[in-house]
């Protein structure tokens, strides 16, 4: 019996997905579990595996098409079987009956003499963007227009962060944390975890465990804003912001509040390796309820991060550095780090944010790992 290949839902509140490429050709045999197609989200390009065995047939979406979640875009059929007929077009917005172009791109096209009828846009639904005009102008003139090319993931990240910043009412709470006990715990655990799991535990691994466990006491920080109101989450699925070439992706450590530090470290290393190779899977980016962004390894003292909707908050972590601070009423030198919590004011108020940061500071100075 034929198995339908549908556009998967990789994120909460996702309505469409962009097909990046087919990893199998039409007419080619496919085994269940093999990677079949690549889909683009605002976080990464992910590979989607086949749901069954069969021959790829009846493909109705091509690379670049934007398709409604749940729509059939191909079939896996048995030898001699024909794919079922579809009742309606599968592609939601990928094919254009008329040229779609942003106002800025239209002005640029007029200024640079670019024929937009000959262009295929790289924006959502095939919309022609300013970058497409500039690229076309480069081909015509042979002179670089100046702006650096932006990857599709980079463009999506720019769109999503702009949307978040302009629609989510952010507020920020900052606190300096004593990281002495955290560093001591890492040094104590490092040899055992390295020997038993073959991975070097990092400060980020410890923070994932500590932050996740603290979140269980503060459910509003582990919730989402939706059209129906505030939705709490039972699990703490911790997303980590990871830098890849020309973009940032967020990969998820599920149920981090119940995970051992060693398991978190193994998962984090695996996610980082596959993110850099562009081989994240749908499960790797789905279901995040809270995000940590750590720039301490780059020597950044402090920063503020933009919330990843529909999450209610994101924690920005700075570098651990020796500072002169009061110790028992006298000046002393302690390893300190600055954390900034960005909150969605529709879900979290200032008092709740402050209480979370207070409890997090206590948990970091007395880590129970």
Question: How would you summarize what this structure contains?
Answer:
By secondary structure, this protein is of the alpha+beta class.
3D architecture notes:
The chain is of the alpha+beta class. It has 3 domains: 3-77, RNA polymerase II/Efflux pump adaptor protein, barrel-sandwich hybrid domain (OB fold (Dihydrolipoamide Acetyltransferase, E2P)), CATH 2.40.50.100; 103-149, Dihydrolipoamide Transferase; 170-365, Chloramphenicol acetyltransferase-like domain (Chloramphenicol Acetyltransferase). It contains 8 helices and 17 strands. It has helices spanning 103-112, 130-141, 152-167, 180-197, 203-215, 261-276, 282-285, 350-365, and strands at residues 3-6, 16-22, 29-30, 35-40, 45-49, 54-57, 66-68, 72-77, 170-178, 223-226, 229-232, 238-244, 247-253, 290-294, 313-317, 321-327, 330-344. Strands 9, 12, 13, 14, 15, 16 and 17 form a 7-stranded mixed β-sheet that branches. Strands 1-8-6-3 form a 4-stranded antiparallel β-sheet, with no helix packed on it. A 4-stranded antiparallel β-sheet has the order 5-4-2-7, with no helix packed on it. α1 packs parallel to α2 (130-141). The termini are far apart.
In DSSP terms (H or I, runs of 4 or more residues), the helix count works out at: 8
Strand content: 25-35%
Report the C-alpha radius of gyration, rounded.
24 Å
What is the name of the CATH architecture of the largest domain? 2-Layer Sandwich
* CATH domain topology of the largest domain: Chloramphenicol Acetyltransferase
Stretches where pLDDT falls below 50 for ≥5 residues? 91-98
